[in-house]
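Workshop exercise sheet. Pairs work together: one partner reads the sequence aloud, the other fills in the structure field after running the prediction. Swap roles for the next sheet.
Pair: D.N. / O.F.
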Amino acid sequence: MSWELDGRLAADTVLVADSSAFQLRLLNDHRYEWLILVPKIANVTELFELPSLHQQQLLQICNSASEKLLGERHCDKVNAGYLGNVVAQFHFHIVGRRMDDPAWPGPVWGHSARESARDEVIAERCEYWRALRLV
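Structure field:
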């Protein structure tokens, strides 16, 4: 079976970068700098199901993105992880948090409905993350 992005991820996110192994996507929510990393392997729902190389690459990408979120993007904290309770397809969240964001200090997951960003905000964020060539 070939890999296909879950429709809910496609609807809520914007493609930032695409490689043979991963898609890097941005959640369309103006309140958070929220990246989603999706391995391009069919039928994977858990981290341990990824091949070791993909697990290593995921960690490297997460580390690089986290460093940028805390540095150049001026976030106070990074929340990273995967849940899969709503969208079973494995995807990894890397969320830049600020002490003044509406969910602080609690988790962003389930806090409130997504609030779409203006086109120029999405464009700036995508341009920034694409230029880093994380995937």
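Discussion prompt: The chain has three helices and five strands. What would you look at next?
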